[in-house]
Amino acid sequence: MKIAIVFGGVSFEHEISIVSSIAMKDVLKNELAYIFIDKDRDLYEIPSSKINSKLFSSGEYKKFDKAFLKKGGFYKISGLFKKEQNIDFDVVLNLSHGGDGEDGILSSVLDFYNIPFIAPRTEACVVSSNKFITKGYATSVQVNTLDYKYFTKNDNIKVDMFPVILKPVKLGSSIGVSIVKNQDELQYALDVAFEFDDAIIIEPFVSGVKEYNLAGTKINGEFVFSIIEEPQKAEFLDFDKKYLDFSRTSKAKEVDLGEKLNNEIKESFKRLYNTLFEGSIIRCDFFVIDDKVYLNEINSIPGSMANYLFEDFNTIFNNLVKNLPAKKHIPITYEYVNKIQATKGK
Amino acid sequence: MKIAIVFGGVSFEHEISIVSSIAMKDVLKNELAYIFIDKDRDLYEIPSSKINSKLFSSGEYKKFDKAFLKKGGFYKISGLFKKEQNIDFDVVLNLSHGGDGEDGILSSVLDFYNIPFIAPRTEACVVSSNKFITKGYATSVQVNTLDYKYFTKNDNIKVDMFPVILKPVKLGSSIGVSIVKNQDELQYALDVAFEFDDAIIIEPFVSGVKEYNLAGTKINGEFVFSIIEEPQKAEFLDFDKKYLDFSRTSKAKEVDLGEKLNNEIKESFKRLYNTLFEGSIIRCDFFVIDDKVYLNEINSIPGSMANYLFEDFNTIFNNLVKNLPAKKHIPITYEYVNKIQATKGK
Fold it and tell me: Domain ATP-grasp spans what residues (chains A, B) (predicted)?
């Protein structure tokens, strides 16, 4: 089973995607192809033997074959006679974190060209990448979230209680996120957040709150879970720390919260994953406050897909590849157009 | 301003899209190009002078130039020397109703290739095309919806109160929708709905409920509304009737619900449209029950974009073309990769 890792993309997490994708060489036993989306959305096929992070920062990647999309796959113009060639792989792994990858753009493009892929489908991407839409969705599937206020750029923004945490609705990896302790700090935090996005949410900031991460997937209708981890963190994980997190391959330490909370976290995960996230391995980050479980966020494409949380990630990954969701067949019969033609002909 | 209408697509509403797109010839004063997505997702450029519905049901469209996507636009291989040629237009109008067009696939593809377009962006498509996600979103923006239950294919489905209306979550134009009057009718209705989708919602069916449609858009931060119409309908609009609706070009009759309700409908529209639907002309369908306004559904690409509800659709359309939402610039600097390289070099 040959996997084509598609990575990079027009995203604030472009670099994270590079690091995460390179780390997969140590995680997956599969043969790998790498397809890089650069900042201009030009595509390149990078030989897996040659891949390293410097290739991208230096611009050297441009010496490799340019790739492009056509029905059923990626192609390149290559060889002495500049012939069009199919790039060989069985399934795509979308590891473009943040924009392009996690906002549904890339999943849509792969769907449009009928390319099988591991990643959340378009709907699941949107539900998880936009924190405001996540809130509404979580409520619909009966999963608790912290109270919040939603504002767009031109709103009159008032905050009564501090401290709060202020987040652009659409970015991951803590980009543009601030903890605001008092009124004086508010304007700067707003300026930062609106630098990245046109809409924000503001939540109460609970100091010292315990966060727990659970990754999982669904294979043949059955959930497969990782261990629950309590990630090490500072006041909150900043970009640098999360960045390093994206290249984690060593195993995490399991935490046992007792049967009731362990179950509640798993049941919340199941309700969130639902049928919507089929085809993907996701990580849900929960808060536990006064013995109650709250969703913090859904990472629809966690760094290196949170392999470090699983005992045997490689096997789970390859089982998922064999169980990707099938699209419903949509018959196009021209029944109605024919009916109109027939009526006109009378 | 030349408009490229992209239509068809792999969708239960493929034929509706054809009828709706042809109708635009009478609505828009712009020069038009037509790009057809066939049932295999092959693309064809159809000359606007030659377009008619029979072209598609007969398969004759295949005699026209095949088109394909590249950065910045659509291209074709054409002429005596089989040269690659750019298809000339200023902006795309996405008129692929239902799947592909309204589920976010096509908007994502256009975004990926940096092609300016009129249609909801990916997030707005997902929020409006999946009725379950619509419910959560409407609640988040403080717009009422009818109570509902959500079920997926393998759930144990129980209904206590009848009549109910049963809807696949992802289809428009009443496809797969049934009114269920008693327990005996339930199983058949479920079989029909699950034929089209893996998830459904069940709502109480309110007989004789009044429905009101309002279309609108936002131009330069200001809302522009159509009239409010009470559409003529049978018990509920079935596919045939909605289908004819998609080729409507004659003006609709305004209904006046009094200042309070008129305003409440408009305010609900504004909260739904929010910043999410910028770049599109949508139609929201509301119920009024006991003087309270409820969202029925958001039509993110209504048939012929609900031109019949506007006094001067052509002007509004062309103003919107000039005010499409801009994407945030995302700088890709390799700051972090460089930092790692520097640390390694030490």
Answer: 135-326
Q: Does one domain contain both A305 and A170?
A: no
Same domain, B244 and B297: yes
Residues A133 and A252 in one domain: yes
Q: In this complex, which of A53, A56, A108 lies closest to B108 when CB atoms are compared?
A: A108
Cα–Cα dist B90/B289, whole Å: 44
Chain B positions touching A16 (Cβ under 8 A) are 336
User: Do B59 and B154 lie in a common domain?
Assistant: no
Asked if B212 and B288 count as a contact pair (C-beta separation under 8 A), the reply is: yes
Quick one: A107 and A171 in the same domain?
A: no
Q: Single out the residue of B30, B23, B110, B4 nearest to residue B317, CA to CA.
A: B30
Q: Give the residue numbers spanning the domain of A239.
A: 126-144+208-321
Check: CB of residue A119 under 8 Å from CB of residue A280. yes
Contacts of B156 by beta carbon, 8 Å cutoff, 6+ apart: none
**Nearest CA among A72, A100, A129, A93 for reference residue A276:** A129
Nearest to A123 among B111, B133, B240 (CB): B133
Q: Point out the residue among A140, A274, A334 whose CB comes nearest to the CB of B56.
A: A334
Question: One digit per residue, pLDDT tens: chain B, 346 residues?
Answer: 999 999 999 998 899 999 999 999 999 999 999 999 999 999 999 999 999 999 999 999 999 999 999 999 999 988 888 889 999 999 999 999 988 889 999 999 999 999 999 999 999 999 999 999 999 999 999 999 999 999 998 899 999 999 999 999 987 667 889 999 999 999 999 999 998 899 999 999 988 899 999 999 999 999 999 999 998 765 555 556 655 666 666 778 899 999 999 999 999 999 999 999 999 999 999 999 999 999 999 999 999 999 999 999 999 999 999 999 988 888 898 888 887 777 665 4
* CA dihedral over A328, A332, A336, A342, signed as positive or negative: negative
Q: Is A82 exposed, middle or buried (0-12, 13-18, 19+ CB in 10 A)?
A: exposed
Same domain, B137 and B282: yes
Q: Do B332 and A15 touch (CB under 8 A)?
A: yes
As a whole-number percent, the residues of chain A with pLDDT over 70 amount to: 93
Q: Pick from A61, A68, A58: which is nearest to A47 by CA?
A: A61
**What value, to the nearest 5°, has the Cα angle with vertex A144 and ends A143 and A147?**
145
Asked if residue A226 and residue A191 are part of one domain, the reply reads no
Under the banding of pLDDT at 50, 70 and 90, the label for residue A283 is: very high
Q: Note whether residue A262 is domain-resident.
A: yes
